[in-house]
Amino acid sequence: MIFSNPLAGATLVFLLAAETGAAAVPLQERAGAGCGIVRDFKGDTHTGKTIESGGLQRVYDVYLPPNYDENMPTPLIISYHGANGNSAKQRALDRFDDHTWNPDHIVVWPNGYNGFWEGPTYAPPGVSDKKFTSDLIAHLRTAFCIDDARIYAAGKSNGGGFTGTLACSPDHGANFAAVAACAGAFYTDVVQDPNNSCHPSRSPFPILEFHGSVDGTIPYLPTKNGSGGPLPKIPDWLSTWGQRNGCAANYKPTVSQLNGDKTVQKTLYTCNGTNVVTGYLIDGMDHSWPSTTRNSDQDSHGDKPVSINASPMILDFFRGIKKP
Predict the structure, then answer these.
(1) What is the pLDDT of residues 238-263, one digit of tens each?
(2) How many C-beta atoms surround the C-beta of residue 35 within 10 A?
(3) Cis previous bond, 204, omega within 30
(4) Containing H/E element for 318?
């Protein structure tokens, strides 16, 4: 596959249809104006970067993978922290800047306004994080060589729920190929509510979610409202996304132990020949980002390390998906 530098006035160069699985597409339609701009911090993270959105100054951190090539469209992950969190805490949880896991994805960790993301009642009113996300992506396209077919969202708790908010947005969600959440607080997608509105930009829209069986903050099977409003039962939420992604209403997902691990239950929706929804239920885990080594979530909730690392599993999930 050959790429030219679009900033040097080169003629259109096309991606090979055999590699993308679709018709040949001009480079300029797959990547932004940042292609050809040399960045000097490969393998490092820059913190405290700012842009303006909605009249507010917003702050983010950015990791440039060691394999970054300014002339090669590169996948992007935006990772959203939990309530009262920040980009530094989320970086320490997801460790998407670990070179052994992630030598190939740009990662951006934005900061929520006053520590929260749009959706729950505790979020600051009048702040559109959906608009901020779209503004951020537009900005990043001018700064880095980003593959528009491989933009992803991940998040923890309030940030995980916000990835669901994005997935339900026909406009702002259209930027993304897939989303993944850990302990997702899906306040804006209460699927038991017949008046709830969710209009994904396309179907299928692949979804991945991790949850602890004893999550006391965002229960797997909530019986009352959370601190930010009503919450869905996670199995119902997974099932509803299965239907949104082309599964029949009576479809029964495949439920199994992950690689024979009795502590991790995998629920998989495979419809029309595609894996469209995947859920992992971790036995005995509270409101934590799943990790085999100690992290701040486990310290806060009295958890122990578990048998899986969510972060490399999320990266592998994203690597298998491109936006059509």
Answers:
(1) 999 999 999 999 999 999 999 999 99
(2) 25
(3) yes
(4) helix 310-319
Q: Within this chain, do residues 120 and 260 fall inside the same structural domain, yes or no? A: yes
Strands of 178-182's sheet in order across: 45-53, 56-63, 106-110, 74-80, 146-156, 178-182, 207-212, 274-282, 261-271, 254-258
What residues have CB less than 8 Å from 136, skipping those under 6 apart?
51, 53, 58, 60, 78, 108, 110
Q: At what angle do helices 129-143 and 158-167 cross, to 10 degrees?
A: 80
Model-level pTM greater than 0.85?
yes
Same domain, 57 and 23: no
Which amino acid is present at 321? I
Residue type for position 97 = D
Q: Is the same domain home to 22 and 67? A: no
Torsion 99-105-111-115 (CA) sign: negative
Residue 73 near residue 29, CB atoms below 8 Å? no
